[in-house]
Design a protein that fits this description.
By secondary structure, the protein is α/β, with parallel strands linked by helices. It is about 25% helix and about 20% strand. The protein folds into 2 domains: about 25-405, Alkaline Phosphatase, subunit A, CATH 3.40.720; about 480-575, Immunoglobulin-like (Sandwich).
C-alpha cells in the first residue's frame, strides 16, 4: 500500500508539475505590449504594398492570430492611444483630437499598466505609448526615466533640415520629410535603444509577472532611418500605392471631398517627391520591423518565452496619396485598418489555457478598444468595469466564432466616424453626409454606394449599429496649448503676413504688465488694429498659418515684438516688459 501511494503521488506530480506546462490558475503570464506608430497595412502578411519587407511582423503573425479586419478607435494618435490605454471610446471620454490633453479630460482614469499594477504586476516600458508623454504615475519603471515625461531616447537627425521635401509654408508639419542617414542602428538610437532596453528586460527572470510595453516610433515621421533600410527600395523601382485612383473623389459627398484632398499630397507631387516619400515610408517600416525582430529574438532566447503573451498593434494607418490625401485624420480604411497580432503560449494564460493556434487568421471586425478587456481576461485578473469594447478571447479560441460586433473609428468632431462590419464599411459625418463601401468587392473604397437605392436596406442596418450618443469635445485649457515663440523687436521687425491654410483660434495672453494693442500685419506689411488687450487678460483671435501679429504697448505706441502663427491652435504669451 505505501508503494502504491508513492507511485500515485509521483504520477500526480508528473502531470501537475510546472515542467509539463499545465496552466496554474493562480499563475500570471507576462504581457509584452508592442505598439508601432502610424503603420497601415503595408506589411507582408496583410498585402498592403507589394514591395514592403517585414519578415519579423510576418513571423509574429504566423505564430499566433492575425486580425485582418482590425480598426483603430481614433483617426489620430492621441484619441486612439487614449482609448486603447483607458478602454474608453472617444465617444465616452470626449477626447477626439491630438490637441487635447488626456489628464485634463480624464484626470483620475486608470490606465492599462496601472490596472495590472493593482493586480500584482510590475508595469515597465519604453518608447511612445501615449501621445508624447509617459504618465509616470501609471508605471513602476520606464526608459527614459518616467519622471522626464519624455518617452523618446536620443535619436539622430540631420543637422540641416529639411533634407528632401521643402516646407510649403507654416501649414506644413515640420517633420514631414525623408532621407537615408549615413549611420549604424546604434548611432541612430531611437527605436534601437528602445528595443535594446526591452530586450534586456526579456532576458531576465522576474519575481513578479510583467506588463512590459514597447513603443516603436517608426514609421512615424520624419522618415529618417539608416541608409541600409533604404537600399532594398531603389527609387526607380518604387510602385505607387495600390489603393490610389486619380478620380477617387468624384462620388464622395461634400464632407468627404473636403476631408480627402489636402495640401500635403499636392505639395509632395509638385516637388516630385511622391516616390521618395513612399520609399521613405517603406524604409521606415523595414527599420521598425528590424527593431521588432530584436525584441522577438530576445524573448525567444530568454527565460520568459513560454510565459509571455504578445500583443502588437498600431495606433492608426496612413494615406500616401489614396483619396488625394497624405497623413491620417480620415475615416477611410487607409487610416482605420491597422495590424493586430496576438500570441498566447499554451498553458500560460488562465483565460486561454490552450493558447492560440499558430497561423490563425481572423477576419471579424474588431476594435483596439478590445485590448484592455482581452488582456485582463487572458491574465485571469479582474476586469475594468467601464471598458467599452468586448473581449477578443472568443476569437482567440476560435477565429471563426460568432461575432455580433462592429468596429468604430472616430474623427475629430463628435458624430463623425467610420463603422467597419464584416464585408461593409459605413462612414458618417456629423452633418449627415454618408459613404458606403462593399469591402469584399471594393477593398480600396473606390465606389461609394450610399446613394444607390438597392443598398438602402444595408445602409439602414449599418446605421442601426452606429452609436447614438457622443460626449461633447472637451477643449484643451490654455495651459495645454503649445506656445508661439515671442520675437522681440531687437531680433526682427514684424514682417508681412503670409496667411496660408485653414483658420483656427490663437489665444493672446498679456503678461506684460500694461495694456497693449494687437495688430495684424497684412500681406503688404501694413498693421491693422484688432483692439486692445488689458494687462493680465487674454484675447482669443481667429487666424491662419503664416499670419503675423504685432504687439504695441499703449503707453509707448511703438512696436515691441510679434508672433508668427504656426500650423495649429496655440497660445501667444506677451512677456513682461523689462524695466528700463
Amino acid at each position: 500500500m505505501p508503494r502504491f501511494f508513492t507511485i500515485l503521488l509521483l504520477f500526480i506530480g508528473y502531470f501537475t508539475s510546472p515542467a509539463t506546462g499545465l496552466c496554474d490558475e493562480n499563475s500570471r503570464p507576462n504581457i509584452l505590449f508592442i505598439a508601432l506608430d502610424d503603420l497601415n497595412d503595408w506589411i507582408g502578411c496583410m498585402g498592403g504594398h507589394p514591395q514592403t519587407i517585414t519578415p519579423n511582423l510576418d513571423r509574429l503573425a504566423a505564430s499566433g492570430v492575425l486580425f485582418t479586419n482590425a480598426h483603430c478607435p481614433g483617426a489620430a494618435c492621441n484619441p486612439s492611444r487614449t482609448a486603447i490605454m483607458t478602454g474608453l471610446s472617444p465617444a465616452t471620454s470626449g477626447l477626439y483630437e491630438n490637441g487635447q490633453r488626456m489628464r485634463e479630460i480624464l484626470p483620475e482614469t486608470e490606465l492599462l499598466p496601472q490596472h495590472f499594477r493593482n493586480h500584482d504586476y510590475r508595469a515597465i516600458g519604453s518608447g511612445k505609448m501615449l501621445h508624447y508623454f509617459i504618465d509616470a504615475r501609471s508605471w513602476d519603471k520606464y526608459y527614459p526615466e518616467k519622471e522626464t515625461e519624455n518617452p523618446f531616447p536620443r535619436t539622430l537627425y540631420p543637422d540641416k533640415r529639411p533634407v528632401n521635401l521643402p516646407r510649403g509654408g507654416p501649414w506644413q508639419y515640420v517633420e514631414t520629410d525623408w532621407a537615408a542617414l549615413d549611420a549604424t542602428d546604434e548611432e541612430f538610437g531611437g527605436d534601437w535603444l528602445v528595443s535594446k532596453w526591452v530586450g534586456e528586460q526579456l532576458a531576465k527572470e522576474h519575481e513578479q509577472p510583467l506588463f512590459l510595453a514597447c513603443g516603436i516610433y517608426r514609421p512615424h515621421e520624419p522618415w529618417f532611418v539608416p541608409k541600409k533600410y533604404f537600399e532594398p527600395f531603389p527609387l526607380d523601382e518604387i510602385q505607387l500605392p495600390p489603393g490610389y485612383q486619380e478620380n477617387d473623389l468624384d462620388d464622395l459627398p461634400p464632407s468627404g471631398k473636403r476631408r480627402g484632398p489636402n495640401r500635403y499630397f499636392a505639395h509632395i507631387r509638385e516637388h516630385g517627391q511622391w516616390k521618395k516619400g513612399i520609399q521613405g515610408y517603406l524604409a521606415s517600416i523595414h527599420f521598425a520591423d528590424a527593431m521588432l525582430g530584436r525584441v522577438l529574438d530576445a524573448l525567444e532566447s530568454g527565460p520568459n518565452k513560454d510565459n509571455t503573451i504578445i500583443v502588437l498593434w498600431s495606433d492608426h494607418g496612413w494615406h500616401l496619396g489614396e483619396k488625394q490625401h497624405w497623413q491620417k485624420f480620415t475615416a477611410w480604411r487607409a487610416v482605420s485598418r491597422v495590424p493586430l497580432m496576438i500570441r498566447v503560449p499554451k498553458n500560460a494564460a488562465p483565460g486561454l489555457p490552450a493558447g492560440t493556434t499558430p497561423g490563425s487568421i481572423c477576419d471579424k471586425p474588431v476594435d483596439l478598444l478590445s485590448l484592455f478587456p482581452t488582456l485582463t481576461e487572458l491574465a485571469g485578473i479582474k476586469s475594468k468595469p467601464d471598458n467599452d469594447g468586448p473581449s477578443l478571447v472568443p476569437l482567440l479560441k476560435n477565429p471563426n466564432a460568432e461575432w455580433d460586433h462592429v468596429a468604430l473609428t472616430h474623427l475629430g468632431e463628435p458624430g463623425s466616424y467610420g463603422l467597419s462590419a464584416l464585408q461593409w464599411r459605413y462612414i458618417h459625418y456629423a452633418n449627415g453626409d454618408e459613404e458606403l463601401y462593399h469591402i469584399t468587392e471594393d477593398p480600396y473604397e473606390w465606389t461609394n454606394l450610399a446613394s444607390n437605392a438597392e443598398n438602402s436596406a444595408k445602409l439602414e442596418q449599418l446605421r442601426s449599429w452606429a452609436p447614438t450618443k457622443f460626449s461633447p469635445r472637451k477643449e484643451p485649457s490654455l495651459e495645454a496649448l503649445p506656445g508661439l515663440p515671442w520675437i522681440p523687436l531687437s531680433q526682427s521687425k514684424a514682417p508681412a503676413s503670409q496667411p496660408d491654410g485653414s483658420p483656427f483660434p490663437i489665444t493672446f495672453v498679456n503678461k506684460s504688465g500694461q495694456p497693449v494693442e494687437l495688430f495684424w500685419m497684412d500681406q503688404k506689411g501694413k498693421p491693422k488694429s484688432y483692439g486692445t488687450i488689458a494687462a493680465g487678460t487674454r484675447k482669443s483671435q481667429q487666424t491662419r498659418p503664416g499670419a503675423v501679429w504685432m504687439i504695441q504697448p499703449m503707453k509707448s505706441g511703438k512696436e515691441r515684438g510679434h508672433f508668427v502663427v504656426g500650423d495649429r491652435k496655440a497660445k501667444a504669451v506677451i512677456p513682461k516688459t523689462a524695466k528700463p
